[in-house]
Amino acid sequence: MAQPQPYETQPAISPQYYVSRELSWLEFNRRVLHEALDSRTPLLEALKFLAIFSANLDEYFMVRVAALKQQIAAGVSRTSPDGLTPAAQLEVISQRLGPMVTQQHQAFEQTLRPAMAEQGIHLLNYDALTETQQTYLQEYFEEQIFPVLTPLAVDPGHPFPYISNLSLNLAVVVDDPRTHQTHFARVKVPKVLPRFVPLPESLWPSTDDLGICCWLGVPLEQVIAHNLSALFPGMDIQAHYVFRITRNADLAVEEDEADDLMLAIEQELRKRRLGGSAVRLEIQQSTPPPVRTMLIQEMDLAEADVYDIDGLMGLSDLMTFMGLPLPHLKAPTWAPTTPATFELLSPPQVEDADMTLEPADDLFALLRQQDQLLHHPYHSFATTVQRFITQAAHDPQVLAIKMTLYRTSGDSPIVSSLISAAENGKQVSVLVELKARFDEENNINWARKLEKSGVHVVYGLMGLKTHTKIALVVRREDDQIRRYFHIGTGNYNPKTARLYTDLGLLSARPDIGADLSDLFNYLTGYSRQYHYRKLLVAPLTLRQQLEDLIQQEISQHQKGAQGRIIAKMNSLVDPDLIARLYQASQAGVSIDLIIRGICCLRPGLPGVSDNIQVVSIIGQFLEHSRIFYFHHGGDEVYLLGSADWMPRNLDRRVEVVVPIEDPAIQVELKTILDLSLQDNRQAWDMQADGSYVQRRPGLKAPELSSQVQLMKQAHQASHLGG
């Protein structure tokens, strides 16, 4: 397929006006950490945010830091838009991150761990256990843990073992009483066992000794450490030290040389399981210099790659405690609602492939009458998007279903419906993005299952990730063909649909449906379709159309009309679009940016960005929706879609952004934007230096959480509809 030449993004602004992408991401993760430290956050939610902070860092090192190290190894000295070379970026990352990691562990050990004990969740150190409790854990070790362990010696006959990615390990120092020689060994803490070993209730102490108790246990590595003699009989255990390794885990697939993309990615996945080069060493703070030096040398790391940990390591495992049945220590449970218009529909009779639906019960009839905006997790994924695909799979009038799958769940009902559709004789085509980072293996499994059921599976365009979230249903109605579609900002994944805020448009608009047909032909065949009636498509038209919309706001404002831009997204990185936003600000256009994560634009710079404000919202749900608003001289433009304003989204991914023309839905989008800008509970204001200040309600202003307010509105709308 002939491809348009990718847009070569060049730094369009001076580095002094561009916040480092890497440091901006660290500031985002600092806001996540703050949620764990905020006294208003329920205890188990605080542990969850601490776990997310830790997991985020793991991925950051596996991908971003690893990429910088690769650039240095390749001799790359080119500066990024912030004016920093790869080596300089690594240096500032280390300087900024060190204190944050220290704060994270101090917060857990000094604040959250005692707070857990006050609420009856006792994560104890092995030394604090009674003799009876230790005896129980010794028996547990012998029966459940010992058979799984494999101690690995290090000596001239035993080379230093390979340390797998994200593995927790014990560096064990032993003395041989016969030879009086000191030896080193490594014991891996197995991931197949629970990280925190619970003690049975029969061994819980009385309330007089411990207070309330809902759970009591110890870290797995401590159980192993205090029973090392069973692994090294006849040796004197001198010491043990916990350490953890992070490795490069990004895939490198040469698509031009890969005859079969699926096989090439499978080969890379096997490499990832072993892990690439080490990029980080987390080590127990008390580790003596000889052991520390050996680990650094064997991992081929520098001192700057080492993070000393005083306390529990691998805090991403704290997510385990969210499974405790203690609702008073969690955020209120949210049950997604069904939009009022959908509540009037009867559940589809999926058992009968030849079913017919009465018009009043027919989702397609509803979409012919009006567009539907879906807002997850406030709206149920199952009763809206999932229902749309399920009904299409079993409706005898549906001829074809076409979808893109970027990420989905391991037990995906969407995939099951697509398989049913193929079995029912429908033409089903699915573009599965095999290069969705850390979901490659899952997507390969689904691709194979879909192919076996008769679904046409394609893997996208060479050199481009297909990130767009679109579904097209083709239906025969009264001797004519009609198209129905869903365009979303989030993945077709029922699990993340309960955790991420995402938007979706269900509609039967003919012009957009025709655009989607052209787009699928572009994705699966030899189409040279570079122009679309309504859709903004990357990497073909989206960048230029966004630039044009910004320029039109400048022109309108210069003519005396109001210039206004509001953009909600995950990340703003693209230098050219940032430069255009600066131009709009200097022209007097009022700009509000609602950006959850990375923002490389500096707001509030005198004479540069006086008219730009940036707010970030970190709450119970992960903000993931993208909405773009332009006043457009009073003929307001509302857009939603899958693309952030980053070079990769605009130039190296297939993305779709759709204009919203239904006035009622425009009002809904305006409400979402307004609530985000009014938030004073989970909102943070970005400062010109790249730091953030959390908003606080004033003395007379009530606390307003945009997410809580949207939950209330969804509940009220559903109740009124019922």
The CATH architecture designation of the largest domain is 2-Layer Sandwich
Low-confidence blocks of residues: 1-11, 253-259, 350-360
Number of E-state strands: 27
The proportion of residues forming helix, as a percent range, comes to 25-40%
CATH class of the largest domain: Alpha Beta
Describe the structure.
The chain is of the alpha/beta class and 722 residues long. The protein has 3 domains: 43-329, polyphosphate kinase like (2-Layer Sandwich), CATH 3.30.1840.10; 340-531, 2-Layer Sandwich (Endonuclease, Chain A), CATH 3.30.870.10; 537-721, Endonuclease Chain A (Endonuclease, Chain A, 2-Layer Sandwich). Helix content is 35%, strand content 21%. It contains 19 helices and 27 strands. The strands form 4 sheets. Strands 14, 18, 19, 20, 21, 23, 24, 25, 26 and 27 form a 10-stranded mixed beta sheet that branches. Strands 10, 11, 12, 13, 15, 16, 17 and 22 form an 8-stranded mixed beta sheet that branches. Helix 2 runs antiparallel to helix 3. The two termini are 50 Å apart. Residues 1-11, 253-259 and 350-360 have low confidence and may be disordered.
Keywords:
single chain, 722 residues, alpha/beta, polyphosphate kinase like, Endonuclease, Chain A, 3 domains, ten-stranded mixed sheet, eight-stranded mixed sheet, 19 helices, disordered N terminus
Summarize the structure.
This protein is of the alpha/beta class.
What is the secondary structure topology, with strand pairs?
Elements: H1 21-37, H2 43-73, H3 86-118, E1 121-123, H4 131-145, E2 152-154, E3 168-176, E4 181-189, E5 196-198, H5 207-210, E6 215-219, H6 220-225, E7 236-247, H7 261-274, E8 278-284, H8 289-298, E9 306-309, H9 340-343, H10 363-369, E10 372-376, H11 385-394, E11 398-405, H12 413-423, E12 427-432, H13 440-452, E13 456-458, E14 465-466, E15 469-477, E16 480-488, E17 500-507, H14 510-524, E18 536-538, H15 542-558, E19 564-569, H16 575-586, E20 590-595, E21 612-617, E22 622-623, E23 627-630, E24 637-641, H17 647-651, E25 653-659, H18 663-678, E26 683-686, E27 692-694, H19 706-721
Parallel strand pairs: 1-6, 8-9, 11-12, 12-13, 14-25, 17-22, 19-20, 20-21
Antiparallel strand pairs: 2-4, 3-4, 3-7, 5-6, 7-8, 10-17, 11-15, 15-16, 16-17, 18-25, 19-23, 21-26, 23-24, 24-25, 26-27
Helix pairs in contact: 1-2, 1-3, 2-3, 11-12, 15-16, 18-19
